[in-house]
Write a structure and sequence with these properties.
It is built from 19 helices and 14 strands. By secondary structure, it is α+β, with helices and mostly antiparallel strands. Helix 6 packs antiparallel against helix 9, helix 11 crosses helix 12 and helix 16 crosses helix 17. The chain is elongated, with a radius of gyration of 38 Å.
Length: 559
């Protein structure tokens, strides 16, 4: 923003005095904020820093200590340099004590071998300063206008980073908190060299404050985030070198303005998505509760860009499984994340669907298929996209071999397709029932992986789930399993679990013992105890079938 000492010495008004640098030659890049003419030996108390002091030296101290004190005070206050004119006090050389003190304190010391009109020097330098300030204002205005437009237009992060790199003339990189590159612009340089081993290099750059310069790498770095929650850093990658006397003010403003635009863009996207999800949720709730008429649902969905009329409609419900009890805020955050991921999968597959939370643990979709859309292919594509997006977000993958879903993976349940908005509730309700019934990890028919569940897949478990509120089913569970449940509660045993393991292993006692991690004699002893408590013979197929149905019904009733 300000001219340097070297730039001032190169002005015609100064060169006429034949300037000679006699000390502090390595500090000529100091910025000159102002020029101050003074003969006072205690002038330091009147300075604010950044001034270039012009003097004839006529009133400088005579003694060595006085000269050293004069230079030290100028250095401590942050003066840009000292210019002494020959002809009044000094004629051929400056005092050795003055030169040595300037070298010691790193203060540029310049001798003018010819007399100059100091007013001409001040006018020239101040004109340079004012012009620089005007240029800085114009540059700041350009930055302000550019990033305002980007913010209003909702520009993608890549476009914001591109503008930062273009206006700075240096590579710019946006990274997340894990130091992974989200967007970059190499500004015409070698992109591979810029990003090579980025994570390791970036972890070593930890400047103080929200914006800082790292001289080892030449990086200017600022944090990106809002509302006290940072989510990344924006880096302007310069050349390695010593810390400048003053960072380029324009680059700092540019980088911070770019970071603010990125943070605002993320907030706007999140809020826009939340508003969209809320609108979709209202429609889905209106369908399930009959709060909206068929025509209202169709009209509002059409306005949202999800035409429902003349389409085949399929209800889809996602249920989170295998998660421990969580605090309300954490549960809401998980549900919101799952909802947004489902919406992203719909966009990726170019599907048309309403997507929104159904309750505290589920996400609902009403998929509208066109006349040429293959239902199975569309649903498989959605399930695959959801699996990939959840995996990229650090969550567990979906079902594995044999249909066993990892803990925490969501259940994807699908209802039967319907041909009108009037029947949309039926497919959503069916998908909800299938999702609730499928929460228990069980392989699908034929051992296929659980890409998604439909009513035939849950079979007996689905029927029992539908009947879970029926008193007759609850009575059946108590009659079959009540004594065993009471025995476990009274004695602290796990006989019900042993029975479940035995039945799930197809009544194979050896396999069941292995699954229970017990020796065969110990497991057999527990089975005999189950028989005594229930008064049944576990070698009879009908008894085992009845008990297995009761266990499945117990799962449905408890949920």
């Amino acid at each position: 923003m300000f001219p340097t000492v070297a730039r001032v010495l190169d002005l015609d008004a100064v060169r006429r005095g034949m300037p000679q640098v006699v000390a502090g030659a390595d500090r000529l890049q100091r910025p000159v904020r102002w020029v101050h003419v003074s003969e006072l030996p205690d002038i330091a108390g009147m300075l604010q820093g950044g001034e270039l002091v012009l003097t004839t030296g006529i009133a400088l101290p005579e003694d060595r200590e006085g000269l050293a004190r004069y230079v030290r005070e100028l250095s401590e206050v942050g003066a840009a340099g000292l210019v002494v004119e020959f002809g009044r006090r000094y004629f051929d050389t400056l005092p050795r004590a003055l030169v040595q003190a300037a070298e010691q304190y790193g203060l540029p010391l310049v001798a003018l071998r010819r007399e100059l009109r100091f007013v001409a020097v001040t006018e020239a330098v101040h004109a340079l300063v004012v012009n620089a300030q005007l240029e800085e204002l114009r540059s700041s205005e350009a930055v302000h206008q550019t990033f305002n437009e980007l913010a209003v237009e909702g520009a993608e992060p890549a476009e914001v980073v591109r503008q930062v790199a273009r206006m700075a003339g240096a590579p710019a990189v946006l990274e997340n908190l894990a130091h992974q590159v989200l967007a970059y612009d190499a500004a015409g340089r070698d992109a591979e060299a810029l990003l090579e081993d980025w994570e390791r290099r970036s972890r070593g750059v930890r400047p103080e404050g929200r914006t800082g310069y790292d001289p080892r790498t030449g990086w200017l770095v600022t944090a990106v985030g809002a509302r006290g929650h940072d989510w990344g850093r924006l880096v302007l990658a310069g050349e390695p070198g010593p810390l400048p006397e003053e960072l380029p003010h324009r680059h700092t403003v540019l980088l911070e303005r770019g970071a603010a635009t990125l943070a605002l863009g993320r907030l706007l996207v999140r809020d826009r998505e939340s508003l969209e999800r809320q609108t979709h949720r209202t429609l889905l709730s209106g369908i399930l509760t009959h709060a909206l008429t068929v025509s209202e649902v169709a009209l509002r969905a059409q306005a949202l860009g999800v035409p429902l009329e003349g389409r085949r409609l399929v209800g889809v419900v996602l249920r989170q499984r295998g998660r421990p009890a969580a605090a309300a805020l954490e549960a809401q955050a998980r549900l919101r994340d799952l909802t947004e991921t489902a919406a992203a999968a719909v966009r990726e597959r170019r599907m048309s669907a309403l997507v929104g939370p159904l309750d505290d643990g589920g996400v609902g979709l009403l998929v509208a298929l066109g006349p040429h859309d293959d239902e199975h292919a569309s649903l498989d594509g959605f399930a695959a996209a959801l699996e990939r997006l959840l995996g990229e977000g650090g969550r567990p993958g979906r079902a594995g071999a044999g249909g066993a879903a990892p803990e925490g993976a969501p259940v994807v349940a699908v209802g039967s397709s319907v041909g009108s908005v009037r029947d949309a509730r039926r497919t959503l309700v069916e998908a909800t029932q299938v999702a609730d019934a499928a929460l228990h990890d069980a392989p699908l028919p034929g051992g296929r992986a659980a890409s998604y569940y439909r009513l035939p897949d849950v079979r007996l478990r689905g029927l029992l789930h539908l009947l879970r509120d029926d008193a007759r089913l609850q009575t059946y569970v108590e009659r079959e399993l009540g004594p065993l449940l009471a025995y476990d509660a009274e004695h602290g045993t796990q006989l019900t679990a042993m029975l479940r393991t035995y039945l799930e292993q197809g009544r194979n006692k050896s396999a069941a013992a292995d699954a229970a991690h017990l020796s065969r004699p110990s497991f057999y002893d527990r089975l005999h105890r189950v028989e005594r408590v229930l008064g049944v013979d576990l070698d009879q197929v009908e008894s085992c079938l009845s008990l297995h149905v009761a266990l499945l019904a117990l799962d449905a009733v408890r949920r």
